[in-house]
Design a protein that fits this description.
Largest sheet: 6 strands, mixed
CATH architecture of the largest domain: 3-Layer(aba) Sandwich
CATH class of the largest domain: Alpha Beta
Biased composition (Basic and acidic residues): 515-526
Number of helices: 19
Distance between the termini: 65 Å
Coiled coil: 567-594
Shape: globular
Domain ABC transporter: 6-216, 283-503
Region (Disordered): 494-526
Protein name: ABC-F family ATP-binding cassette domain-containing protein
């Protein structure tokens, strides 16, 4: 095996009184591709900063092969002090590096090089930092969450670019698909130490479970040995006369080893507080269009979102995903066409910018709203410390300002705030940013068990495959197309990669999956069906009003004690109206789909 370009050995670092890294380390040889994985807060970014030479450990050694060129991509790149993005990228190049690579990579990433770094969005700053890291084609690349804030086309471009390089790489990422594509070795950072798996990431999760199961077996053996030693201490012949100092010391050492051997459970419990059922139809768009000046964001969209759907929305940055969410949730109106939002919706939104978080407030105040020490979760009061533990926060973090939390911790805090509120519609805008793999697994399980409807904007291809029942894709020029299944199913139906989203496609470029089958002679709806189709929207609106009236009556907490008959009557009317609404919506949906089938060319 060739000598390592970089070697970290016995790295120790203590923060806040407890060791973050305790004997961690790894080596990287020429051309090797390593993914560094671990839970949020385990020290991955810190270890990568030590590898990059930006942070000194308390103890341990860092050896870099002389003459090795290294480029480091931090999570939050600093572009201050540069007049243009091209200046920033060129400043990262060394003597002899091909200067044309700077402009070439910026162009590939959708930038001109003339942009003012002070005006860039998070995604644009990340693309500039990527160009700066990749342009010199260094011997060693250290990449911390390279896909954060990138859209789907850019992520797939990045995969291809990294595969084409001969550089050695160490990558931290929550994007399973990227790790499976690129990695050949996994370094797992857990409880301050590192373990190495010389296989790709696809094998990692099974291997991790094997390691943890072995720890449980070892702990069980240690328990039995401790029990034998304690029995000797109490009942042994020697113990009747005096304690054997050596055996007492050994027992104390075993107990300490047992405490250290027990893996701290994730403790993460993500359960959405579910509200009352919504109507059968959550959102219906009919020829809906929306534009901002000459920029068409949505062009004649036809879409139905039914109760229980988990709709993934994908497209390039700027394609209009956030606008589409506002339209489908009734926060914005189309310029033409119609979007009807369903009845009895209780919506909870998870914002990718995390604007709802005040950096000056403490973690506990953020969860409680600043009042008391309890959180209202699904209508029940819980102590804030117990609820914090569900999301992997330590009790001592209760008074920690939100501004000092890591990106992953802020992501968990947003989840904790969102999941406490009753809902039957979850709107998740990039929920996977900064979350570790274990949290992503638990979030997926929560969404699988959630009986409400989910609108999900994400650039995480694996997460979309696991969660989405259908994917709505930006095809360019404001045209959105829905595909059944997850992201991989969408690719199979389209017959290509991620939609570019920026360039408008001609009708000749339309995916084969969207070409309608030839039909026989056109037929029309019967008079009775057409009359019902015209009448049903009014009936549905009237039923929604009736449901609202009865719920208002039943919201009086003292009604049952004061007038049981009125309470019983209102309950009966509410149940009948909800049943009639469901039947009317299903009948309208059936007729509308029949009309589309019969009248489409």
């Amino acid at each position: 095996m060739s000598p390592p370009l970089l070697l970290l050995q016995d790295i120790t670092l203590t923060l806040g009184g407890s060791p973050l890294l305790d004997g961690a380390g790894f080596g990287v040889s020429a051309g090797e591709r390593i993914c560094l994985v671990g839970r949020n807060g385990s020290g991955k970014s810190t270890l990568l900063r030590i590898a990059a030479g930006e942070l000194l450990p308390d103890d341990g050694t860092r050896f870099l092969q002389p003459g090795t060129s290294v480029r480091y991509l931090p999570q939050e790149p600093d572009l201050s002090g540069f007049a243009t993005t091209l200046d920033y990228v060129r400043a990262g190049m060394g003597p002899g590096d091909p200067e044309h690579r700077a402009a070439l990579l910026l162009g590939e990433l959708g930038m001109t090089g003339a942009e003012d770094p002070a005006t860039l969005s998070g995604g644009e700053a990340r693309r500039c930092a990527l160009a700066r890291a990749l342009a010199p084609e260094p011997d060693l690349l250290l990449l911390d969450e390279p896909t954060n804030h990138l859209d789907m086309p850019t992520i797939e471009w990045l995969e291809r670019e990294l595969l084409s390089l001969s550089s050695a790489m160490v990558i931290i990422s929550h994007d399973r698909r990227l790790l499976e594509t690129l990695s050949r070795t996994v370094v797992w950072l857990d409880r301050g130490i590192t373990r190495r798996l010389d296989q790709g990431f696809a094998r990692f999760e099974a291997w991790r479970e094997e390691v943890l199961e072995q720890e449980v077996r070892d702990a069980h053996k240690l328990d039995r040995q401790i029990a034998r030693e304690e029995d000797w201490m109490r009942y042994g012949v020697t113990a009747r006369r005096k304690r054997n100092v050596r055996r007492v010391g050994e027992l104390a050492a075993m107990r300490q080893a047992r405490r250290e051997a027990v893996r701290t459970p994730t403790g993460l419990k993500i359960e959405a507080s579910e509200g009352d059922l919504s109507g059968k139809l959550v959102a219906v768009a009919e020829q809906a269009s929306k534009a901002y000046g000459p920029h068409v964001v949505v062009d004649r969209l036809d879409l139905r979102v039914l109760r229980g759907d988990r709709l993934g929305i994908v497209g390039a940055n700027g394609a209009g995903k956030s606008t589409l969410l506002r339209l489908l949730t009734g926060q914005d109106r189309p310029d033409s066409g119609d979007i009807r939002v369903g009845s009895a919706l209780s919506t909870v939104t998870l914002d990718q910018q995390r604007r709802a978080l005040d950096p000056a407030r403490t973690l506990a105040d953020t969860l409680t709203g600043g009042g008391g020490d309890t959180v209202l979760v699904g209508g029940e009061k819980r102590h804030v410390i117990g609820y914090m533990k569900d999301f992997l926060f330590r009790p001592e973090q209760a008074r920690t300002p939100v501004g000092v939390l890591s990106g992953g911790e802020r992501g968990r805090l947003m989840l904790a705030c969102a999941m406490a509120r009753p809902s039957n519609l979850l709107v998740l805008d990039e929920p996977t940013n900064d979350l570790d793999l274990e949290t992503l697994d638990l979030l997926q399980e929560m969404l699988d068990a959630y009986s409400g409807t989910v609108l999900l904007v994400s650039h995480d291809r694996d997460f979309l495959d696991r969660v989405a029942t259908s994917v709505l894709t930006a095809e360019g020029g404001g045209r959105w197309v829905e595909y059944a299944g997850g992201y991989s199913d969408m690719l199979a139906q389209r017959g290509g990669g991620a939609p570019a989203g920026r360039a408008r496609r001609s009708s000749a470029d339309a995916p084969a999956a969207q070409k309608r089958p030839e039909k026989g002679p056109a037929r029309k709806l019967s008079y009775k069906d057409r009359h019902a189709l015209d009448r049903l929207p009014g009936e549905i609106a009237a039923l929604e009003e009736e449901i609202g009236r009865q719920r208002t009556i039943l919201s009086d907490g003292g009604l049952y004690a004061r007038d049981p008959a009125a309470f019983t009557a209102a309950t009966g009317k509410l149940e009948r109206a909800e049943a009639e609404l469901t039947a009317a919506e299903e009948r309208w949906l059936e007729l509308e789909m029949l009309r589309e089938t019969l009248e489409s060319p």
